[in-house]
Structure formats: structure tokens, C-alpha cells
Design brief:
Strand order of the largest sheet: 8-7-9-10
Number of strands: 10
Structural class: alpha+beta
Length: 311
Amino acid sequence: MKPNDCCGLPELERCDADLPDSPQCAPNYHFGMLLGVDDFRAEQGFHVGRLRRHQRLLHGSGVVAGYDVSYQPADQELRVGNGLAVDVLGRDLVLEVPQCVSLPMWWIAHREDEDFADIATPDDATLDLDVIACYSCCLGNPVPAIADPCAGNASDIAYSRVCETVQLRLVRTPAAPAVPAPQPFHLLRLWLGLAQPRRDHLGVVLASDQWLIDRRTALAALPAAQQEIERPVLVREVVARAGAEQPLAPPPDEPDENDLCLTLARLRALRLKLEPDGWKLTLGSLEMGVRDTLLPTALLQQLLATPPFRS
């Protein structure tokens, strides 16, 4: 699957660009100020960075809309619809045009890859694959430019646009990590019974979690009328402490770009078998529940106002 065609960019080598992300400072314009490239990038980075920080901290990451994934047995094609998602750095992943790939042709191109070295018979392979969406930033709209006198024989053509786009990939389904990634707002999850207490290397419950366990035990020991008074107070304290634990910015050592991709679907037990009359494919299941989804605020408000579902 090729990246979304943005600003006439068919070549992947142009898609190693970046947009500045610096939300803390904006240029302080004044009369007679001499403006350079750094000033314009600072202006750009201020707005880009603020938007990404907002999305990362207030909304999280996941698919917002679209990105339907389907398998067409007649054509042996995998199709991904257009959509909008947000990655863990708060970057938009917008796919404007639906994409498709022939799974036999994809397998012919990739079966010699290192990731599939353990498959003894590539002409009859069964494997699990993830469909992932990865952020990409591409240069476009080449225009004449004044050549840098120190650039030697460099071309006097420059790209006047930087375009955010998406690369869709098929990758081997990774093994489950030995240690699951920590979930955000742990104390709130612990309060709701969605998480277990955290422990140190000696198996001792961490002080912050023990505080909540003790407060919850004390609350349960109160008379019912007193519990109704104290519970909202404790909930506010739990929410405040859970929020205080959240990091303001991404880790200083940013992970590999591949680790920032979003999983859209999982192909289970995909068998690709080469027979005399061509490739034959069978698919055990296509699962979309592996993706993270971001629900719109208006929908969440409606759900909160709706009586609980009863079977």
C-alpha cells in the first residue's frame, strides 16, 4: 500500500520531511524585524505543537472515524477505507483516498523479508498479519529557488509544501509484550476495578496505590449515609492524583516510528498457498477490535444521558 497521494508525491524518498513541533514559543514580531526561515518555522511549530499536545493529552490516540478494513475473496484484495486517526504523539493520520492491495502480490514481494524467515514453505504459508497506519510527512510542489552559494552543485529547485499523509503497511502480528505498557490514569482505573495495584521489584504495593486501597477500605467501613457524603470527595482526590501522574510530553527518547503506528485490523490464520492454477487464499478471521477508537465528545455526552443498557 502506497502513501496517500498528497501534493503530487508518488515517491517515498520525498516522505522523510517533518513539521516543527515547538508549542512553547512563538515569534515576537516587531516593526523592522528581519525574518528568516527559523522565524517562520517557529511560527509554524507553535501552532502545530499546540494542536498535537492538545490531542495527545486531552484525547489520546486511536481511530476517530473511518478506516474500514475488508477482505474481498473474489479479488484476493485487502481494502482500507478513508479515515481519520490520531497517533500517540498527537499527529493526524488522514487517509483521503481508499487503498487496496493484492495479498498474493504483496506476499510475492515480501516473503523473503527477514520477518518471515521462520516460514519453511513460502509457497504454503499460514500467518497472522496486522494492518497498520503510520504517519508520514512529504515534500511537494517543487519551485525554483535561490541556490545556497555553499551548496556546490545542488539543484536550485526546492519544495514549497510539506504535507502530512499516511502509509499503510502489513506487518507480522507481534508477540504480546512480556510487560504490558502502563495504562493512563492508573489510580482512576484502580478505583473502578479495571487495574491491579502496582508493585515494586520486591512485590510491595506502591505507596500511591496503597493510599487508595486504604481510603477505599475506610470508606466501605462508614455508615451508608456517610459514604454518600465522603465518596464524591474521594473521587475528586483520586481523579486529581491520577491526572498528576500523567506525563506532559512524550518521552525524551522518542520510540521508533514503527512503534508509533496504529493497528487498524488483524488478519488471523491467513493461508497463502501456491497451486498449479495460481495462489489460493483462505482467511480465518478479520478482527477490528484490536484497534483503539476515539469517541466524539457529543457521542459520549449522549451515552452518559442514556439509561444503562439492560439485556
